Automatic annotation (TrEMBL):
InterPro entries on file: Ion_trans_dom (IPR005821), VG_K_chnl (IPR028325), Volt_channel_dom_sf (IPR027359)
Membrane topology summary: Multi-pass membrane protein
Molecular function via GO: voltage-gated potassium channel activity
A GO CC annotation given for this chain: voltage-gated potassium channel complex
Protein's cellular compartments: Membrane
Biological process according to GO: action potential
Transmembrane stretches, start-end: 26-46, 58-76, 88-110, 156-176, 182-202, 214-238
Record-given protein name: Ion transporter
Organism: Buttiauxella izardii
Domain of life: Bacteria
PANTHER family: POTASSIUM VOLTAGE-GATED CHANNEL PROTEIN SHAB, VOLTAGE-GATED POTASSIUM CHANNEL
């Protein structure tokens, strides 16, 4: 009986192939959104209108309710998972635990009360990460993630090159401009290089010499590739991934025709049902 109940609970909490599992995950995502919304409303009202004691208690009760619901969900997930230890230390297990910790920390260490309020709000806002649980079941997002995974070596190589350029440019500017013009340390100079190559340009540190302005101009031109090159790499891999999916969805019965769209449910040639995307 316990084993059967545990299996049913597992399918409800983790099996997104069932309608009940998808509905439960959507319900948890809705709770996460409402809890984050409550954090923002509480922060805005508390700062601008100085909540009364009764109004403050309302948000406290809401937080207690959300925390208890997420705590029960976390306990059930740990109990029904085949290897509880593996789930606890998994990415999603850590996220689930982080969503329930803030209130318990405040209860265990009440002496940090006022100083902890701002950190408490920030930690509660992390619940928005639970929405990623819903996004990961969308075929388009899976395609994007697969494309990024396939392009990881090219992306790592490109960003490693950018890091080298930042360090070299920072070193040059530190030597050219020096402390009198705001480039007081190598760290500050590299910070300026990062801000410049991303074309943000805060203006808090600017070159004053001709050589420094030449280096800045080169960095600005390089900055355009920071967006263009990774976008091109990921787009190419996404195109390849989509083409693979379309070729893989061939008619399983009569004509064996391939090249079907990812949203197609029936063969465009003979009308037979197509296999679903994994």
């Amino acid at each position: 009986m316990i084993t059967t109940a545990r299996k049913q609970m597992y399918h409800l909490l983790f099996d997104q192939r069932t309608k009940s599992g998808r509905r439960f995950e959507a319900f948890c995502g809705l709770l996460a959104l409402l809890s984050v919304l409550a954090v923002f409303v509480e922060s805005g009202l508390g700062t601008q209108y100085h909540l009364t004691y009764d109004e403050w208690k309302l948000f406290v009760y809401l937080e207690i309710g959300f925390t208890l619901l997420f705590t029960l969900e976390y306990i059930f997930r740990v109990l029904c998972w085949p290897n509880p230890r593996k789930y606890v230390f998994s990415f999603w297990g850590i996220i689930d635990l982080a969503t329930i910790l803030p209130l318990y920390v405040l209860w265990l260490w009440p002496e940090i009360g006022v100083n902890y309020v701002f950190a408490w709000r920030a930690m509660r806002a992390i619940r928005v990460l639970r929405i990623l649980k819903l996004l990961r079941y969308m075929p388009t997002l899976n395609t994007l993630w697969q494309a990024i995974t396939n392009a990881r070596h090219q992306l790592i190589l490109f960003y490693a090159f950018i890091v080298i350029v930042m360090v070299v440019a920072g070193g040059l500017m530190y030597g050219i401009e020096g402390p009198p013009n705001g480039f007081t340390t190598l760290g500050t100079s590299v910070y300026w290089a990062v801000v410049t190559v991303t074309t943000v340009g805060y203006g808090d540190i600017t070159p004053h010499t001709g050589a420094g302005r030449m280096v800045a101009s080169i960095l600005i031109l390089i900055g355009y590739s920071v967006i263009a090159i990774p976008t091109g790499i990921i787009t190419a891999h996404m195109t390849n991934e989509l083409q693979k999916q379309r070729n893989a969805r061939s008619c399983p019965r009569r004509c064996h025709k391939g090249n079907h769209d990812s949203e197609a449910r029936f063969c465009k040639s003979c009308g037979s049902a197509l296999p679903k995307l994994s």
